[in-house]
Amino acid sequence: MGRSEPAIHALHGFLGSGKTTLARQLECGLPGMRFTSDEWMVALYSRDPPAELFPVYFARVMAVMEGQWTRALRLGVPVILDHGFWTRQERDDLRAKAAALGVPLILYTLDLPGGEALRRIRSRNGEAGALFIADETYWLLRARFQPLEPGEEAVSVTPGPPR
Predict the structure, then answer these.
(1) CA distance 30 to 5
(2) Which Pfam family is an annotated match for this chain, by its short name (predicted)?
(3) pLDDT tens, residue by residue, 23-44
């Protein structure tokens, strides 16, 4: 298998939309190095960290992952950022980082009806090693999700079956 040029492959989508499934496909297909924030959270802080500490833990995970994925890019390795990039600000910040690193950014967007996404999350909650997401948390976070705006280029991906 040939080596891909360094690039950031970032996944935009809400909880349960199929981001990790796509990230795993990209990881093998490019090939590239995958950074899945949920996996890091579980490995470092358990599958159900206390709600009051979640923002602090998550910020730490994102900071450590960024140090690793930027290093991978500098070494010529494509990276897959399985995070969600829910807000326009997060996406704009990522665009600026890609420009500063001199690498292309390929944004993939996944959209899945809320009922199906929630069904997938409920199913995933029963799996060992999955980050637990309560129904109330799903709906609380849903209000923070911002769809792509006109002019934001992205590869639209139809979510496949769950992992």
Answers:
(1) 9
(2) AAA_33
(3) 999 999 999 999 999 999 999 9
